Amino acid sequence: MAQQTLTRGTVSRRARLPRRLALLMRPELPSLSKEIIDEVRRSIPEYGRPLKGPYVEALRIGVERALTDFVDRIASPLEPHERHHETYRRLGRFEAQEGRTLDTLQAALRIGAQVAWRRIMKVGPRRRVSPEVMAQLADALFAYIDELAALALEGYMDARPDGEAEAHRRRLLELLLRRDGSSRVLCEAAERAGWPIPDEVTAVVAPPGARYVRAALDEDVLADLTATQPFLIVPGKATSERLQNLLRVLPDGQLVVGLTVPLAGVSDSLRWARHALGLVETGVLGDAPVTDCEEHLITLWLLSDQALIDQLAQRHLGGMDGFSPRQRDRLLETLRAWLVTRGTAAEIAKELGVHPQTVRYRMRQVEGVLGDRLTDPEARFAIEAVLRAMRLRDRAAPAPAPGRDDDGPRGQAPIDNRPISDGREMST
């Protein structure tokens, strides 16, 4: 009823507007359309995507038809003007199908009205439009925007008969991630959302701002695809079939799959997946379409607190700072190989691509700095963990410029045949 009243009022007001206004306004429409689109894209992140995207195309069509329709109503106020109504209903359906609220579209309508009114205030006085007519034009413009919003709401509600169920699913997601509700509360929320509670779940995350196709989402997957860090909760394990479907939902790829955990651990799975996504974005992990946390557990553990790694490095390896950066890197590289392989000098030399004598020489230097730490099992374990973490972080760093080896030509160090005092002799 409210909408019918609004529409009748709009028609009666527009009937009093001088038709010559349409002649004054039509030449302004192409540039005004561009100005509105630019302002909306600048002000609303969802519309700031690539120009070929569906969001921007829907915006362009909506703005151009709205301006043309508004001027046509001034030119011919008594003619029916329902031919564009479906355009605005379709915009509302589009928002619903993408899993969003109407807030974004309504904000775009407000911005469009403001930009249009600024143009009217600029052109009207120049064309000697009276203040009375300007006031009527303002009434007509903002009533028209209300009408567009009402039509978009119709389309939105038509496409969201399950709007209440979606609200319950969002509430369920909040309860799962907070882990502060009783099992009874969780069961009730799951029942209202129509979501059978699984024994295990897996979190999946996508990069911020990832494109998504809401309609491709499986019914048993909970998701917040509009979050700053989009994520999904998948019942059970993320099978290959499930992942293929998720790649249809999020076609840009670069998904990260968390660990499969009991329901109470869903926030942990999400945290690990987001941590892994950060490592993908910094280059530590590869940027495959799908990254599985199960394949990178040690990396996730070693890089779970990089500030703590820095503290451990300073505590156990701070004495190495007396060397030049290049010398330090080569000594730590040799120390890491020695800790990992516990092989002979010849074996370590083969792995590093240097002369066995270079290995002995470097290890003498390392032993001179670290001393008893090399024979202390706990210290040795900490050093190995730090070196592994540092090596993982270095994957994201640019390779050093080529230069002269600090150990001498072709990496061969001065002759030193003394054994390494680690409880066994490093033989050739």
TrEMBL record:
A Pfam family it matches: HTH_30
Domain PucR-like N-terminal: 16-177
Chain segments carrying region Disordered: 394-428
Biased composition (Basic and acidic residues): 419-428
Span of domain PucR C-terminal helix-turn-helix: 331-389
InterPro entries (UniProt xref): CdaR-like_regulators, PucR-like_N, PucR_C-HTH_dom, PucR_C-HTH_sf
Protein name (record): Helix-turn-helix domain-containing protein
Organism: Actinomadura chokoriensis
